[in-house]
């Protein structure tokens, strides 16, 4: 599948590959939840060549006609289309005309918009980024200006990787959600009970070695060894959806769905009580999955009872086998409205069952933050890995921490926690 960044780079050089852009745009739509197939992407490219759209509105209309199959997908399409084509590519490139330089205008008041529209009708608007259609400004536009504009758009996307989820706009969150669905979920591995033949195995397979010795007159020249097969370790995600975690709850709901579908993980959310969302997040259509998930959690954006909900998880699910030898990922800022000692006791019980506990706290991104009080201080002695997960780049650290749970060399910013020994 072509990469959108490569298509953008070709756009900045004036060498547009329409097939590559259509395929990359279709791939991004598919990641955002619109079931776009390669055939639809190819049809979109063919329609653009035949219709030769003159405006982005016409290009968007062609895309909606060829790429989406239900009106519920229109909102997702509009958001992804705005992120991809507003400033990244110009329809003039598809027609072979002189490229326009598109710069999104700053938000204007109603009076400014009225004045601007009047100037545009008179052909005297100085703030028009593209100039008049046949004027000298459009004809004398230099390629360097176009390249700078495209690179500026790409740099904005790069800066989005470090931007806190709480500071993102709705359009930026839509793009982040699409990028989260493109993350590669790699499960942590563990040694299985069954043995398989392996060249570097340490256990000799006596039966296979004796069978092989028949070819060498009974002399076991070829020795066959076996080793434990690798199996994925169970991953359980428990996310705080209380009022203090509202800016991050929607983003991590996408992460929970990706882990459920890719790794077969178990997903829970909590505010004042624990809610299991594994079944709801398994739905193929993301919008339906998120709608069912939010309906299943009536305490969304409520208070925070971390200790009570973790105790409920241990009693109802953990001791029955779900947490035994599993990687537990808890997403919470540590605000506890009840006694913090409840958090400490629940975490102690959970640490005896789990293989690894990863705690994701967006407040950790602040340089002055120290988990010295409240529920976070009570939980710290039982945490193996402590990360922030406040941005897209920090989210990659969360994914890496889950993958690194294959080994027992876990650590946090505040040192390796003193965890009691327990079985894998």
Description of the molecule:
The chain has 424 residues and is of the alpha/beta class. The protein has three domains: 92 residues; 43 residues, no CATH class; 172 residues, von Willebrand factor, type A domain (Rossmann fold, 3-Layer(aba) Sandwich), CATH 3.40.50. Strands 6-5-4-7-8-9 form a six-stranded mixed sheet, sandwiched between helices. A three-stranded antiparallel sheet has the order 1-3-2, with no helix packed on it. α5 packs across α10, α10 runs parallel beside α12 and α15 packs parallel to α16. The protein is flat, with a radius of gyration of 27 Å. The chain starts with a helix and ends in a 21-residue tail after the last helix.
Number of helical regions: 18
Mean of pLDDT: 76
Radius of gyration: 27 Å
Spatial sequence of strands, sheet with the most strands: 6-5-4-7-8-9
Largest sheet: 6 strands, mixed
Low-confidence stretches: 1-15, 87-156, 409-418, 420-424
- The count of domains is 3
CATH class category label of the largest domain: Alpha Beta
> Total number of β-strand segments?
9
Q: Estimate the strand proportion.
A: 5-15%
Query: What is the share of helical residues?
Result: 40-55%
Query: Which sequence of SSEs, written as H and E, runs from N to C?
Result: HHHHHHHHHHEEHEEHEEHHHEHEHEH
Which secondary-structure class do the elements indicate? Answer: alpha/beta
Shape: flat
């Amino acid at each position: 599948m072509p990469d959108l960044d490569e298509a953008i780079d070709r756009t900045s050089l004036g060498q547009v590959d329409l097939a590559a852009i259509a395929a990359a745009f279709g791939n991004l739509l598919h990641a955002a939840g619109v079931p776009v197939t390669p055939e639809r992407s190819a049809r979109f490219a063919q329609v653009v060549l035949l219709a030769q759209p003159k405006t982005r509105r016409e290009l968007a209309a062609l895309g909606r006609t060829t790429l989406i199959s239900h009106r519920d997908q229109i909102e997702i399409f509009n958001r992804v289309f705005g992120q991809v084509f507003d400033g990244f590519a110009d329809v003039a490139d598809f027609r072979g005309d002189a490229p326009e330089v598109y710069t999104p205008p700053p938000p204007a008041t109603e009076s400014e918009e009225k004045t601007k529209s009047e100037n545009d009708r008179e052909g005297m608007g100085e703030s028009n980024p593209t100039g008049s259609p046949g004027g000298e400004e459009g004809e004398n536009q230099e390629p360097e200006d176009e390249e700078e504009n495209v690179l500026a758009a790409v740099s904005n996307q790069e800066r989005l990787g470090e931007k806190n989820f709480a500071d993102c706009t709705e359009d930026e969150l839509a793009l982040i959600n699409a990028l989260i669905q493109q993350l590669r979920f790699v499960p942590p591995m563990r040694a299985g009970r069954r043995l398989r033949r392996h060249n570097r195995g340490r256990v000799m397979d006596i039966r296979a070695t004796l069978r092989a010795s028949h070819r060498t007159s009974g002399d076991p020249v070829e020795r066959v060894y076996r080793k434990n097969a690798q199996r994925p370790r169970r991953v359980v995600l428990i996310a705080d959806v209380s009022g203090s975690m509202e800016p991050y709850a929607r983003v991590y709901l996408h992460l929970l769905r990706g882990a459920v579908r890719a790794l077969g993980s178990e997903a829970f959310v909590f505010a004042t009580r624990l809610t299991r969302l594994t079944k709801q997040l398994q739905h193929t259509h993301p919008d339906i999955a998120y709608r069912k998930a939010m309906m299943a959690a009536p305490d969304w954006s409520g208070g925070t009872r971390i200790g009570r909900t973790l105790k409920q998880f241990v009693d109802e699910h953990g001791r029955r086998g779900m947490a035994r030898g599993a990687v537990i990922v808890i997403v919470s800022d540590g605000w506890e409205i009840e006694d913090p000692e409840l958090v400490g006791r629940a975490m102690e019980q959970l640490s005896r069952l789990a293989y690894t506990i990863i705690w994701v706290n967006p407040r950790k991104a602040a340089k002055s933050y120290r988990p010295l009080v409240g529920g976070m201080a009570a939980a710290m002695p039982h945490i193996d890995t402590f990360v922030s997960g406040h941005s897209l780049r920090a989210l990659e650290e969360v994914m890496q921490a889950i993958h690194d749970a294959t080994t027992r060399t876990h650590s946090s910013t505040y040192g390796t926690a003193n965890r009691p020994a327990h079985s894998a």
